[in-house]
Design brief:
Layout: H1 2-15, H2 20-33, H3 38-50, H4 54-68, H5 74-83, H6 87-99, H7 104-120, H8 124-135, H9 142-158, H10 162-175, H11 183-190, H12 199-208, H13 214-226, H14 240-243, H15 277-286
Length: 287
Amino acid sequence: MAEVVGSHLLMAGMLVDSDPVLAHAHAEAARRRAARLPVVRQVAGETAYAAGEYGAALNEFRAVRRMTGSNDFLALAADCERGLGRPQAALTLVSEGLGATPAPELYIELKLVQAGARVDLGQTAEAQRILATELDRPHLAAPLRARLAYAYADLHEQTGDEPAALEWFSRAARLDTTGETDAAERVERLCGLVLAVDLDLLEGESLNSPDAGGDDDEAGDAAEQEQPLAPSPEAPPGDPRVEGQPVSSTPDDPSSETGPAGHGEATGPAEQGLLPLEEDERTDSAH
């Protein structure tokens, strides 16, 4: 049983970024077998949160708090309340967490959720004040300051202040040395260095273009010109066709056209090998 639970937790951790829905399915499989283990409920909550299942995630985070007495997941729980459309409940959880003198990492996470809840309530100016106050704090670790700067920049962009957004995204990009955020990409986008291209539309325009297949036409015309001309039995002596001399084409000669080249369909990425959930169910029932 322990090996099965561990395997599901391992798969959940491996898949949470690339396929959170499947990761949550593995976490749920582990939870059905070991619901009394806090680590199992924690993984179930984190994968549900990543998959956008905020109600399920909130239940799991509450269970972890009951089991351990820890406030470590209060910021995630508060953000789940936001996801469920309850910003006021999110602020209540934030207040509980801030009142417990949290560690710096949890403190910043709570402040980020607090600012987001204020935005949800239409209090954008208050959200900006919260983030600006925290950015002025001395001795703040660079990764935490990067998170705050990124949120502050994003808020400026939402309100239409692109110069301020560019400034703070640039600061976040300099502070974020591990690539935790996409601040560098946001800077490029605001500077106009990123061109979004719809590849499917581009391919469609290429196929429908009147010049499509032009290379094939030219190749076909060249091949026809290179073919030797057979002498006509009715041609009189001295006819250039008999002498093997080239015959100049006249403007009335029709030219052939070929259709566009065939376009193959792209194949999707190969699926990852996954732990079969149904086989684990049969294994558990055998035990």
